[in-house]
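Example with several molecule types.
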Amino acid sequence: MNLATRYLGLALPHPLVVGAGPLTDDADKVRHLEDEGAAALVLRSLYEEDVKGEQMAAFFYSESHGESFAEASSYSPDPERAFGPEEYLDHLRRVKQAVGIPVIASLNGMSLDGWTSSARLLEQAGADAIELNIYHAASDPSIGAADVERQMIQIVREVKREVRIPIAVKLSPLFTAFAHFAHQVDAAGADGMVLFNRFHRVDIDVLELEVIRTLELSDSSDLQRRLRGIAALSGRVRASLAVTGGIHTALDVVKATMAGAHVTQMVSALLRNGPGHLRVVREALLLWMEENEWGSLDEMRGNMSFERIPDPAAYERANFIKLFR
Amino acid sequence: MSKARCITIDGNEAAASVAFRVSEVIAIYPITPSSTMAELCDEWASRGKTNLWGVVPSVAEMQSEGGAAGAVHGALQAGALSTTFTASQGLLLMIPNMYKIAGELTPFTMHVAARTLATHALSIFGDHSDVMAVRQTGFALLCSSSVQEAHDLAAVAHAASLESRVPFLHFFDGFRTSHEVAKIEEIGDDDLRSLISEDAIAAHRRRALTPDRPVLRGTAQNPDVFFQAREAANGFYDACPGIVERAMAALERRTGRRYALFEYSGHPEAERVVVIMGSGAETTQETVEELAGRGEKVGMLKVRLYRPFSRSAFLKALPRSARGLAVLDRTKEPGSLGDPLYLDVMTALGEARSEGASPFKADPLVVAGRYGLSSKEFTPAMVKSVLDELGKKAPRRHFTIGIVDDVTHTSLAWEASYRTRADDVSTALFYGLGADGTVGANKNSIKIIGQETDQHVQGYFVYDSKKSGAITVSHLRTSPRPIRSTYLVDQARFVACHQFEFTSKIDVLEHAAPGAAFLLNAPGEPGEVWDRLPREMQEQMVEKRIRFFVIDAFALAKRAGMGGRINTIMQTCFFAISGVLPKDKAIADIKKAIEKTYGKRGPEVVRRNCEVVDQALTHMHEVPVPKAASAKHRRPPIVSEEAPDFVRKVSAVMLAGKGDLLPVSAFPVDGTWPLGTAKWEKRNLALEIPVWDTTVCIQCNQCALVCPHAAIRAKVYEPAALSDPPPTFKSTPYKGPEFKGKVYTIQVAPEDCTGCNLCVNVCPAKDRTNPRHKAINMEPQAPLRDAERANYDFFLALPETSRAEIGRLDHKGSQFLEPLFEYSGACSGCGETPYLKLLTQLFGDRLLMANATGCSSIYGGNLPTTPYTTNRDGRGPAWSNSLFEDNAEFGLGFRLALDAHADAARFLVRHLAPRLGDTLPAELLEADQGTDAGITAQRDRVQALRSALKRLEVPEARRLEEIADYLVKKSVWLVGGDGWAYDIGYGGLDHVLAGRWDVNVLVLDTEVYSNTGGQQSKATPLGAAAKFAVAGKPVGKKDLGLLANMYGHVYVARVAFGAKMAQTTQAFLEAEAYPGPSLIIAYSHCIAHGYDMAQGAAQQKLAVDSGVWPLYRFDPRRLVKGEPPMHLDYAEPKARVADYMRNEARFRMVERADPARFKRFLEEAQSAARKRYSVYQQLAGIKVPVDEPQAPAPPPEAPAGDVKP
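Resulting structure tokens for the full complex:
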């Protein structure tokens, strides 16, 4: 059985990738993930706010009190190392040192304010690829969908200009014309696309009148939206495709692959079951393929995509008509 | 001779650089102005820098200067090369060990930034009163007058001490030298090594205490031998001056810089000679050399080695032509025949004369002058005045110079306009705010000029005494000649004002030279700036032919995301206008300096700073100065005309920056100062102030409780009081049943608010239809200022709510009481002051406060204005600061005195009882004063007593009149920070708690030495970075509360107002009511924690919710009821310690530097929070048997320390 795949130009022995999340926060624990067979690791995002926010805040708070009073020229020791991207880069270097598998760094931001140059720093620190997260809440009524999309595409182009390593763009499902936008991303030079971003769950505390944000773990039911997205792109874009969100079992991997995914990223399943779950899923995948007489993942990849299934409407609006009429 | 590297550093670094390299053990403790030396050594050691022998010195912070002295004494005895740094009171604490170290002939050098000793007042500034207080210890005293000398003579001191075995105290003037930035030639490692004798080090090692060659030291000796043994060391002192001379000569051979024990400058046949040491000697030399150059027969003798005083070297250095000597001391010894240097000079001359060894045909007349106490300016004009006096036929024998003494008439007059030649000296003055970074940029400018040109440079920085909105003035000089001007710039060729508001507050052009360039940061269009300047300023600009440049630096900074940081913008303009460097070179150097200074803060910080530098010059405009002033408006008066006489005549002059002009007669003779002066200083710091929305407010008073500056207040009052209010004054019916029918107002003091946002952040009331809008919301101050000023005045005039009316004196009710602590100079958003304000609200009218030195004593008692105030009856907190280390004992003294007065009063009441009416004596003696009502009733009784006493014509009645007020219960509070309570004052605090005296202790726990710049204390929590714990404190916080609990009879509470205001208030009330010692440990968020203080209350809550900061009250009174004395006021920790720690830069910088170390800290801290809760929970369940009631014993003689009835 051949589980090998290529994602972002990286040759991987199988499609099980550890997605961006707390699992890759600890340089010691990533070794464990590798030992359990992770094909690659995606680190949590370096946020635009990390690049600028904390260092500027620390600068204002510390410097605005220093050199103000005769008895103290400052109120804390000089930091040994600056806040900002360096901390992330150090972590990336440590993870790179700890493991032999590809390490994909993440970059998250939305403005056009110079932060994209951090991509080069990620490359210099040893990232094998970059996952670019450009979610935008688009809550400003003065900015239209076309403006938002234009800005996102510009960010993709800028990041591409900064680096030679491949970049994947992590997409949100919230596009009016998702496939059209994905094609623009593809045309802008993205080497991969990751479907989809999962967002904090937002709730309202009706007594305190506060917004509560939580991040809940996914389950396999989250997969269906991804399947539709991947199936819509498979074979139609140059970029390789990843599914993130809802991959918990070997069957989930099979479905994602059939829709067209090159890799499947796992986070919630590993948080729930531990790193050993990587091995469990891989072994189950092999068993399932054997039982169902599949020789390789390449054979099945995209067989259930829009391009190849006889009735693409099954993924689309007609689906609902059939089901509920 | 080796080629030296030039460096631009301050005096502290100059000395520390040498001390670090020749030491193995460094024991430190922070004290201004020496702290930087300790901080640098700790920082260097933590970064792995080594001494001359390739080893990183061991740096240990101690709990006090006494501890540091003990530690170095031990290290020296064990054969290490050791050093320490201190000043002022710290040096006094070292005296016992200094005698020991000297008595044991121990090679050792300490470095002192000489500072005023606290007498009638504390002063952090420089004079020689501290070093003169140790001249008898047996230490050699070697004095440096400049930054270069602080470097060079530090090396001489270490070398000579090793050779001579006499310990050395190397000193230089606090601030004037310790904080002056100057270009100096560095002593390289090879040069330094060449000065230090390896043989002497080996000898020191051989004298070490070691069990391999055991000896005994520290014996006790008897009358038979002590005297002789003490004299056995004489030879070492006799040899010491010669050894110092040889060390100086060795230094000269390596560096070319020549020093002598006493150095003469001036006319070779001088008749009038000033003898002086310290930074004043530089100014004296500058003046004398100029006068001598003109042919005047004047000279000066600079004293370097003051102890051992070499008579022969002194006499040899003096010119034979001298007819008069003016010996100037920078210290005061009241009651002596003269100050110390004068007495030494007199003795030297007298002895030489009597031995026939005098080099003079006729001994010169010697006069004594005192100058420069507490860094008082000492200028060439003053030097000239002294020389002129010496030239008189009968000069005054004892005088002061630099002040106007119109009481005992000691002072010499001086001609202020006299100046030394300075046509080749560039001078610049910069007025800025601490927060805008002016000083930092100017330090960089001086370094740039120092490093990039052949010019000599000098930077000196003056700060006001506020911690919020502090004004800084930077004094910069550059010159092709060495700069000896150790006084402020008073003729600046360049003046910059970085804050437009200063133009209406300060005379920023007072020291502008004719033709000077004036750079003003002004908002708006350049063409409109002139019209906005006050008339006085316009007149000066016309008269002085000022070249005027403006820039809207704030607009530029804001666009670049730099907030209010305008320093690099203004710095760029300075270089462009002054032309000290070619423009492009200057910009490149500024950027290099930005990289060096802010690189540690991050690349985005550097990028934005560089961006504004690039844009600065295109935004700067030269504005033509019209031929005449045109403004109609003038600067407003410093204080209101309604201010008391003293405030107008004294405080206002100080506020105007002209305190130097006040004569002796303006001041109280003993340091006593009136209360309530801060209210007259309207600082207008806030850009935005809170605005109250009556429709949303739930009347919880939380905003008032958390306000650090008492600038937002609550009142309830009868509707009738609302007659004719100002048009925008707000009120609303009171909502609760307790004040039914009354109206309620929340009012902001618009000109006293600092805009910290704490109140808005704690406000729980939201507009349900628009939760973004709260009951109070920040709005721009300027448009509201006039209306709210009128509203606030009206509010203050409304009747106060009496205590009796307030049903529950909880966190809400307490806020209807008048705060007697207001508008302090504490940091915006300070976490300490809300506790103090609450204290004065609850007990202020019967409160005695002993305040340990630290932040709370500075914002509580630093002139020009102070925040403690009185109520309408004239009662208020009686406040005093004794020292840092003795506060518990000092406060206990209050209690003892109060009790003594009360005992005496009760005795007299009993004695006079038959003549005081039937019931009054018994009522007075048996009054229940456990409640406010009881205290009010007792006050009424005392009033009745006074009336009764008037009718009695017996001496006892007169005595009782004097002390009758002590029949009313007073509340004694011992207040201080964690540096005091956990470290330096712990021994005294422990003793006071161990007794049964009725005192209350409030520890304002910021978990660092905040006032001196954030050094770790034993209160610093695990994993926090602080100075002296750069890598994060490796051990947990001392549990002061638990230690006190163990006594069993101490009331203990840990509080955090941001987490539970009700518990805080309850703890204060219980502590005060408890008739024994009480200890409240109060979480105080602080700028040293590294986050936005507006979030202080929220962070306090997180501290409690995560179990980092437990809340409890341990009340021994519960024992009597058979209840556990410990009551937990917090729940099992639910929040994550990580979330708490990651909010603060003090923890985050550890994570950033060493994630693995931080992770360990985090796990330990999380575990500690869990365990702490478990331990406290178990303690809260402990019950102990209740004693059976016993027959009342006859009243015993009250032993010391017993609870008074």
